[in-house]
Design a protein that fits this description.
This is 2-dehydro-3-deoxy-phosphogluconate aldolase. This protein is an alpha/beta fold and about 230 residues long. It contains 9 helices and 9 strands.
């Protein structure tokens, strides 16, 4: 997947690396209920060292949130998650999403994401799904729901027969378990929400979110600061 920035009014100043999985050890998974929170929330995450931000399409405010972050937080690499339809792919990229994430995939959805011009992480939870994506030329995937689908033991088992596949595990991962995932050779980063407590967002306590983001950004495979 060759990253390309979509056409929108803002020109992102942060270049994409060769792999989306190499931006940071953690990709925050953000649910935005009020689009007015998007920019200060994104600024707090970026200031804490987490530039890749996945905004899930679970609320009516999601596309406006992506648009606001893309236009006002140039050091953020904002993406769209919970991608389910080709129409959502088009809307998300038009809003300024620089990467796409889906909980699962079909050939129709995969082709829409492939044609979007931005990096994408299709979701998998079984070996057959991984093999099917490798067959289609996709090597970077979201492993979801990570804990429920087998966690680190499952991913470790995949590394031997399928070393070419790399993952961003998401689902049930927290600060304590993230280093166990990051220690695996086939894991590039993890996705999570633990740095986004609901009470902090409700209170607009962006300083607390920045502090939690900084803690997450410092994670390494052995649990120590990088």
């Amino acid at each position: 997947m060759t990253p390309h920035a979509p056409s929108h009014s803002a020109s992102p100043s942060l270049p994409m690396p060769s792999s989306l999985l190499d931006l940071a050890p953690v990709i925050p998974v953000v649910v935005v209920s009020d689009a007015a929170d998007a920019v200060p929330l994104a600024r707090a995450l970026v200031a804490g060292g987490l530039p890749a931000i996945e905004v899930t399409l679970r609320t009516p405010a999601a596309l406006d949130a992506i648009r606001a972050i893309a236009g006002e937080v140039p050091d953020a690499v904002v993406g769209a998650g919970t991608m389910l339809t080709p129409e959502q792919v088009k809307e998300s990229v038009a809003a300024g999403a620089r990467f796409l994430v889906s909980p699962g995939w079909t050939d129709v959805l995969l082709e829409a994401m492939r044609g979007s011009g931005v990096p994408f992480l299709p979701g998998v939870s079984t070996t057959s799904e991984v093999v099917a994506l490798l067959e289609r030329g996709v090597r970077e995937m979201k492993f979801f729901p990570a804990q429920a689908a087998g966690g680190t033991a499952y991913l470790k088992s995949l590394a031997g027969p399928l070393p070419q596949a790399r993952f961003c595990p998401t689902g049930g991962i927290g600060l304590a378990s993230a280093p166990d995932y990051l220690a695996l050779p086939n894991v590039g980063c993890v996705g999570g929400t633990w740095m986004l407590p609901e009470d902090a967002i409700a209170a607009k306590d962006w300083a607390r979110i920045e502090e939690l983001a900084r803690e997450a950004a410092a994670l390494s495979a052995d649990g120590t600061s990088r």
